[in-house]
């Protein structure tokens, strides 16, 4: 997982609340056997509408999503985060996230920052005044800025640390790699081995 | 200095601690054996690829194809596209990451929980995981065996460890002697009916007592298999001479000095006499009847000699509502005698009851008999080896003469993921482990039963036990 500190990317004003994971990625896409390549599935039904915000030229290559309250509710599918990530999003902001979505985000390197409803509106207006403008996300200071506007966001300390260090669950465990190797060295000879294969 | 007395589960846990979790963080446990199948692994391998990681211990990992595999015409391409894609992905991943795989057509192919023990890979005192909830099966050997999710599969592939939260212990004491015609399947169905589908939540169950000690390894596997249906993290039986005898000489069982060292260690595993469990349950084996389910979860079970319960029998409003819904789905009326329920399909198979002993016990009942009119019976061995062995013993001939379909190995009608499904409204007596709505096909109705009840039911066409058969009584069997 890549470390996240400070980055700037095109921001989208996503004036919708209660965006559930079925909207983020419809169930028909869950049959796939990969963990990547879900970019086409993101908001699939909404994207059929040519006026949908992500279909506007200014917001092509968007990386920062500023959404209304209650983002990521509904089914616990991890695919919702995969789809956002595959599309190119590095950060999502909302005044309220569903817990499971927030947890899944942190594990996949997607920043899910909480901002107030008031700041959400301010950010929307700043972006809409200048479509295609970049937003700077600063995980060290916990701020997001558009032009001269800077607002604070909240993220739990543990998730922030993991993102700053670029540690996924496996990366976390591998910090104990020496202990794993030591353990392996004193494993008894009778314990099972699948290779070489005997039949 | 005297050590704190420990249970079997605690001993196995402690001997696998790589790092102790502090401040409520989970412990990091080493995993001795990782079983892989096609459904829950593709995204785990993809995750490894994405992060540029390798499989840490291919030599502790083994893959087999089971959930999606057809049980006949196995030399033809798999028709369903999703199923085929999953199988092809497993083959490709196994090759790329250097993992041993047993594919359709291979003699060691079969249901993952049948293959591990059969190869002698499952043994006492080890940790076993698999991206499948019925991994609890392997606990029959005194192993700590747990089902895991896809992201955990990826974690184990990459690190051979798993962060796990501590568990509580529950003793399931089954004392006495089972009557003829009553099996370990009836024990576990009765246990789940008693403690409920959530009764084991957070616990590792240990099955104990004279009735458990008397069971064969295969019968113990049937019990441990269904621990998950009581919501438990795992189920275990302490290893003993029966365990050692079963293992000895299997392809991957230890040999020579390693065997002696292993047995010496395995003998230290049973729960210390003064150890305490967080909870205890008691069941009398002497009075147990064959058990069958009437509803849509494995806890909705009754004696085969009983009747369909009424929602009014339940005090808890949730249980009552569940009963109303289950009766409607199952198309049953309260008060109907269980033995009056007619089925159109009998399924003998699944990781619960598809081992050679299960097939032998059914064959003994079916021999020389005729199937009831309008009933079809599928007999699906748990692995290609079980199938070969059954054929060597002539069991296939008994099954075919009886009129049953003798299939190739796989999960088959245990779940509707392959072509073996029930049609809407069809009713089955099934030796599998889940009777959930739609599990065996959309609108399908499932009664969970033992292999003996399955066989007797196929003969009579209504839910029956061997004691209901003339042949059984004539031969001095128990009535
Ligand atoms: S036989 Fe059924 S329960 Fe067992 S692994 Fe296959 S699908 Fe799961």
What does the model show?
The complex is a heterodimer of chains A (199) and B (479). Chain A is an alpha/beta fold. Chain A has 8 helices and 9 strands. Chain A has a single domain, classed as Aconitase, domain 4 (Alpha-Beta Barrel), CATH 3.20.19.10. In chain A, strands 6-5-3-1-7-8-9 form a 7-stranded mixed β-sheet. In chain A, strands 2-4 form a two-stranded parallel sheet. In chain A, α3 packs across α4. Chain A is globular, with a radius of gyration of 20 Å. The two termini of chain A are 40 Å apart. Chain B is α/β, with parallel strands linked by helices and 479 residues long. Chain B contains 16 helices and 19 strands. In chain B, the strands form 5 sheets. Chain B has a 5-stranded parallel β-sheet, with helices on both faces. A 5-stranded parallel β-sheet of chain B has the order 17-16-15-18-19, with helices on one face. A 4-stranded parallel β-sheet of chain B has the order 11-10-9-12. In chain B, β4, α3 and β5 form a beta-alpha-beta unit. In chain B, α6 runs parallel beside α8. The termini of chain B are far apart. The chains are: A alpha/beta (199), B alpha/beta (479). The interface between A and B is large, with 31 and 47 residues. Bound molecules: iron/sulfur cluster. The site of iron/sulfur cluster has 13 residues of chain B, from loops. Chain A: One of its GO terms (molecular function) is 3-isopropylmalate dehydratase activity. Chain A: Keywords: Amino-acid biosynthesis, Branched-chain amino acid biosynthesis, Leucine biosynthesis, Lyase.
């Amino acid at each position: 997982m890549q470390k996240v500190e400070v980055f700037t990317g095109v921001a989208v004003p996503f004036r919708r609340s209660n965006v559930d994971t079925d909207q983020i990625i419809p169930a028909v896409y869950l049959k796939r056997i990969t963990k990547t390549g879900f970019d086409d599935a993101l908001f699939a039904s909404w994207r059929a509408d040519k006026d949908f915000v992500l279909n506007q030229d200014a917001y092509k290559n968007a990386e920062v999503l500023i959404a209304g309250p209650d983002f990521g509710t509904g089914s616990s599918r991890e695919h919702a985060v995969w789809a956002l990530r595959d599309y190119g999003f590095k950060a999502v902001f909302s005044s309220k996230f569903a817990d499971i979505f927030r947890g899944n985000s942190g594990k996949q390197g997607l920043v899910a920052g909480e901002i107030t409803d008031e700041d959400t509106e301010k950010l929307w207006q700043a972006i809409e005044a200048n479509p295609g403008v970049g937003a700077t996300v600063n995980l060290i200071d916990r701020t997001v800025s558009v032009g001269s506007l800077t607002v604070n966001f909240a993220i739990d300390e543990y998730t922030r640390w993991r993102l700053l260090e670029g540690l996924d669950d496996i990366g976390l465990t591998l910090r104990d790699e020496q202990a794993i190797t030591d353990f392996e060295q004193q494993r008894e000879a009778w314990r099972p081995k699948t290779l070489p294969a005997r039949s | 200095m005297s050590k704190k007395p420990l249970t079997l589960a605690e001993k196995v846990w402690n001997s696998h601690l790589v790092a102790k979790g502090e401040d409520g963080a989970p412990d990091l446990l080493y995993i001795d054996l990782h079983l892989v199948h096609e459904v829950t692994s593709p995204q785990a391998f993809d995750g490894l690829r994405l992060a540029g990681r390798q499989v840490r211990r291919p030599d502790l990992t083994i893959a087999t194809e089971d959930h999606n595999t057809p049980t006949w015409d196995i030399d033809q391409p798999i028709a369903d596209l999703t199923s085929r894609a999953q199988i092809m992905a497993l083959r490709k991943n196994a090759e790329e990451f250097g993992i041993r795989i047993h594919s359709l057509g291979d003699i060691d192919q079969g249901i993952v929980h049948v293959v591990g023990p059969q190869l002698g890979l499952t043994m006492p005192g080890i940790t076993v995981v698999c991206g499948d909830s019925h991994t609890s099966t392997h606990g029959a050997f005194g192993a700590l065996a747990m089902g895991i999710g896809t992201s955990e599969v990826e974690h184990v592939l990459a690190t051979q460890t798993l962060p796990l939260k501590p568990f509580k212990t529950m003793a399931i004491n089954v004392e006495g002697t089972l009557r003829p015609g009553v099996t370990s399947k009836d024990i576990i169905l009765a246990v789940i009916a008693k403690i409920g589908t959530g009764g084991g939540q957070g616990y590792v169950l240990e099955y104990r007592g004279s009735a458990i000690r008397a069971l064969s390894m295969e019968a113990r596997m049937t019990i441990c298999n269904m621990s998950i249906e009581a919501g438990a993290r795992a189920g275990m039986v302490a290893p003993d001479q029966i365990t050692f005898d079963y293992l000895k000489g299997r392809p991957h069982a230890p040999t020579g000095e390693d065997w002696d060292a292993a047995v010496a260690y395995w003998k230290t595993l049973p729960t210390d006499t003064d150890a305490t469990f967080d909870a205890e349950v008691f069941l009398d084996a002497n009075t147990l009847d064959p058990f069958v389910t009437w509803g849509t979860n494995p806890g909705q079970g009754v004696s085969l000699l009983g009747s369909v319960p009424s929602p009014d029998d339940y005090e808890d409003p949730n249980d009552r509502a569940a009963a109303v819904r289950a009766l409607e789905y199952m198309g049953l009326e309260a008060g109907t005698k269980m033995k009056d329920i007619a089925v159109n399909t009998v399924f003998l198979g699944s990781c619960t009851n598809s081992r050679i002993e299960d097939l032998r016990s059914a064959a003994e009942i079916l021999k020389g008999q005729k199937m009831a009119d309008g009933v079809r019976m599928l007999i699906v061995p748990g692995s290609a080896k079980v199938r070969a062995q059954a054929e060597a013993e002539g069991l296939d001939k008994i099954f075919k003469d009886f009129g049953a379909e003798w299939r190739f190995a796989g999960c088959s009608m245990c779940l509707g993921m392959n072509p073996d499904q029930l049609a809407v409204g069809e009713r089955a007596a099934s030796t599998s482990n889940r009777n959930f709505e739609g599990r065996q096909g959309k609108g399908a109705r499932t009664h969970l039963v033992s292999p003996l009840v399955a066989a007797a039911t196929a003969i009579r066409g209504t839910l029956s036990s061997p004691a209901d058969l003339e042949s059984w009584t004539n031969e001095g069997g128990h009535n």
